[in-house]
Design a protein that fits this description.
4-stranded antiparallel beta sheet, 21 strands, Immunoglobulin-like, elongated, mainly beta
Amino acid sequence: MRSSITVLVTSAAMLAACGQSSSPASPSSAGVSVPVSNVAVKSLHVTGPALVVGDTKQFAAVATFADGTQQDVAAFATWSSSDTKIATVDTTGKVTAVAEGNVSIHAAFRGASDSEYHNVTPLLFFKAAGTVSEVPPGFSAVPNARVEIVGGSNVGTTVTTDTAGNFNFGTMRGDIYTLKVTRDGYQDLTQTVTLTRDIANIAILLFPTPPIGATARCKDKSWSFGSDKASACARNGGVAYFVCPGPLC
């Protein structure tokens, strides 16, 4: 019985192998191999993120095939650097910035090729601090707000505003950062900050969570539940802003 089972399993494996494509496969974001098209390559386009000394970042090599389809073939391209003293590149397109300077990252695939020029910038550090306040007409500082780095270097770093609404990340490397700000009673906010110099006041404005049914915030800080713009905040100094999303937004 064991011999029969072995034969069946072996036969199934052989059948599965016979049904596989001979085309190379490229990795997908889901971890499943995606076959590379056998259609002739029309062109290749190399792209990559900005580089700072010490970075190791993945570059893309997108092939456009004769049938109009496109696919990132970085894992199958032949990569090279114009100056390995400035940046090196491995066989999959991962580029490591070694020193400050100018470099071209080149890829070739099935007779098509392309290069992208990069200026590797020095690793610099800057101070980053700011304040979280309520949008007008509130203007007031928002204490105990959570400010988290969700994009760029130092992802996961979190600070909390003090009683005056101030926060301070200290010294961070120059980069483009995405901040997520949360506080009970206020709507979540995501804000991008480009850190290329010391910034002492990253100004962040939060919208208070409106009461159910509110359509506008009035200039006297009250809420309007009016169903049209003409009547909204008519007796409260006018409209500071309409609630979005909402019927009057």
